[in-house]
Design goal:
Helix content is 25%, strand content 38%. It is α+β, with helices and mostly antiparallel strands and 80 residues long. The two termini are 17 Å apart.
Length: 80
């Protein structure tokens, strides 16, 4: 299992709609947080180890209605 975070920039006024759609429609999404700054949302996803991350982001996240831009953060280790 691999964890990625995707920062999402939304069309104006649509961040809550995008967040709801991501949680409801994308099985791999575990959490969505609203954030401040250049991006509007931080989406945490758990993917099987053999998943093509680029294909997942472009087909599952970037195609959500009202998404304008994304930036993906690939993680290596989780420290608890």
């Amino acid at each position: 299992m691999q964890t990625i975070f995707v920062m999402v920039k939304c069309e104006l006024g649509k961040a809550y709609d995008v967040a709801a759609e991501a949680v409801d429609m994308v099985e791999q999404v575990s959490e969505v947080h609203s954030i401040s700054g250049t991006y509007d949302l931080l989406v945490k996803c758990y993917l099987p180890a053999d998943t093509d991350i680029g294909r997942f982001v472009t087909s599952q996240i970037q195609t959500l209605p009202h998404v304008k831009d994304t930036q993906t953060i690939i993680t290596f280790n989780a420290f608890t």
